[in-house]
Amino acid sequence: MERSVNMERSYNKRQEAKPHIAEEWVGKIYTFICIAFLVITIFSMVYFVASKGLSTFIVNGVNAFDLITGVKWNPDIDIPQFGALPFIFGSFSTSILAAIIAAPLGFCAAVFIVELAPKFGRRFLQPVIELLAGIPSVVYGFVGLSVIVPLFRDLFPGQGIGIAAGALVLSVMILPTITTIATDALSELPAGLKEGSYALGATRWQTIYRVALPTTMPQQMTGIVLGIARAFGEALAVQMVIGNAPHIPHSLFESTSTLTSAITLSMGNTAMGSVQNNVLWSLALILMLMTFVFVFIIRFLEGRKKL
Amino acid sequence: MQANALSTKKLNVYYGEKHAVQDVSLDFAEKQVTALIGPSGCGKSTFLRSLNRMNDLIPSCRVTGDIWMKEHNINGSETDVVALRKHIGMVFQRPNPFHKSIYENIAFGPRYHGVKKKADLDNLVEESLRKAAIWDETKDRLHKSAFALSGGQQQRLCIARSVALKPDIILMDEPTSALDPISTSRVEDLISELKQDYSIVIVTHNMHQAARISDKTAFFLSGHVVEYDETDKLFMDPSQKQTSDYISGRFG
What we know:
The complex is a heterodimer.
Chain A: H1 2-17, H2 20-58, H3 64-69, E1 73-74, E2 81-82, H4 85-116, H5 118-134, H6 137-155, H7 163-188, H8 191-199, H9 204-215, H10 217-233, H11 236-242, H12 259-266, H13 275-303
Antiparallel strand pairs in A: 1-2
Chain B: E1 4-15, E2 18-24, E3 27-29, E4 33-37, H1 44-51, E5 61-69, E6 72-73, H2 81-87, E7 88-91, H3 102-112, H4 118-131, H5 135-138, H6 151-163, E8 169-173, H7 181-194, E9 199-203, H8 207-213, E10 216-221, E11 224-230, H9 231-236, H10 241-247
Parallel strand pairs in B: 4-9, 4-10, 7-8, 8-9
Antiparallel strand pairs in B: 1-2, 1-3, 1-5, 5-6, 10-11
Helix pairs in contact in B: 3-4, 3-6, 4-6, 6-7
């Protein structure tokens, strides 16, 4: 008897729940539209860049292998040469060098924030470092141009522009990313692991070096790869300090270009549909493919996250 | 009259304003198992963590009083805490192996204390794993990750890890509370074997465990030691009413 009453009550509840069906559908459709918009945008961008970029090879008959390995970039002469290796080299060397500078700095800053001054670090230092991420890239470029370039010009042979200046500017730009991820990784480290190390008579620094760093390595690498990806895609700040000569430099202080700086510099000067324009899309395609590679690396590293 | 491995004189521990351990004076006999029992929050773990100065890691924590190990007061500021922890090992509530191989987990501590040669380390690793009764289960996979081991095996690995430093005293903070009954009984057997070589102080929630493995037992209540006696005496014929109430399950 009691049971049937209960059933009736729950049946009534379901009756009352009926108005929520409309809400349920509105919610489902609305969120679906949003995600569809995102997916369509992403796929159409990929399609657009790919179709434009590939038409260099299909329509204009430029050899893809020559584009990637060629070292001569002369798009405006009678028999144009499209060798993008200097740009590819410039992009990789500046972003990897930037990561080499920024990674130890970011990790050590994170150690200070988490291990040495947790209160002050969390409340004051971390927000300050995150502030760096909000500074527009043109400001970085401008500071680089007016501070770093003259400094390098005085200290080293050459004009001060080049890979070194580009990498230094980029390293400051990607520092917040690396520091923030390193800080999160270190503070998520289970307290038990650190205690275990201390209980075996390890010092604080031995614990950081032998336990905290290796245990959080996958996350640290994720931060570094994210930083490289950001540096790889950065155009404006690099363009301002790198000199933009289309050849592979012989030193870190010689004018060169990156994929992004080559695109931004030439995009306005080429006619849509011309081979000179299409080849810039090919550069964009290379950039995009590299970004995908970085995303895959990050996914892979996160899969390996040990905690 | 047996020698004391460790004794505390009027030990007090404060967390900020909270007076967590109050005037505790206990003697821990050499090569015996001493159990610390009491309800949650009675200060027994806090007391245990003071003995190897682990509480130094907590900024708000203050420990006053004396801890005598042989003729040294190890609670002084001049004590080399790093060297001290070589003599007083610790095993934690949750198994906490490092994200390294079984071998590297054992070799971790000795490396910091001057054992560098591979042959020495190899011997030490084997000896420690044997002492912790886990050699047979691990000898074929010394260089595999310690995380492939079960929880109980991980805990015995952690015991082996502290044994590798050849300590005088091993502190255990509820070492079986995260383990299943079978693993628990293996760890208990191990503790009974280890006491031939080491003095052991163990915090436990489980009164049966204290009764099974310890020689002496101290009963903590709200930061005080209510009673400290031979385990048999304390469980069979406690002199304090609070003790008999606790062990008969009337509170806690």
